[in-house]
Write a structure and sequence with these properties.
- By secondary structure, the protein is α+β, with helices and mostly antiparallel strands.
- Strands 4-3-5-6 form a 4-stranded antiparallel beta sheet, covered by helices on one side. Strands 1-2 form a two-stranded antiparallel ribbon.
- A hairpin with a 3-residue loop joins strand 5 and strand 6.
- The chain starts with a helix and ends in a 6-residue tail after the last strand.
């Protein structure tokens, strides 16, 4: 039993990620991430090194949604701490599909917490009229 547990632990570390599954087990992007609400779609994995080091953080990223409804033009706006969660944020966002197409950029804040995984909130953009 100890060997099995060790093998599972090593496998998780080898993949470099710790993941909190959604309740349904599916990993589709939400149709529309509402501001102030937690998304239940394709959330980023918690990087194993950050989890092991008990590191929490926040990443802000911008993106647009193409005509197929998938995220593109993904750019990291800010990240605290730097060089910890950005790669995983981009990996997850590249899988987001099923959203309303838009050429206007959207900004999302992803908060990584040890006790809660990753929580996503869309930041409303202010447009001058």
């Amino acid at each position: 039993m100890k060997r099995l547990m060790m093998a599972i632990t090593l496998a998780m570390l080898a993949t470099g990620c710790v993941h909190k599954q959604t309740q349904s087990g599916q990993q589709h992007a939400p149709r529309d991430i509402k501001a102030g609400k937690s998304a239940t779609g394709n959330q980023p994995y918690y990087p194993a090194k950050a989890y092991a080091g008990r590191i929490e953080g926040v990443v802000r990223a911008s993106y647009t949604v193409n005509t197929k409804g998938c995220a593109e033009n993904i750019k990291i706006v800010s990240a605290q701490p730097a060089d910890v969660f950005e790669k995983e944020t981009i990996r997850a966002m590249n899988k987001w599909c099923g959203m309303e197409p838009t050429s206007l950029p959207k900004i999302i804040t992803i908060t990584f917490r040890l006790n809660g995984g990753a929580r996503m909130e869309e930041v409303p953009l202010m447009v001058d009229k």
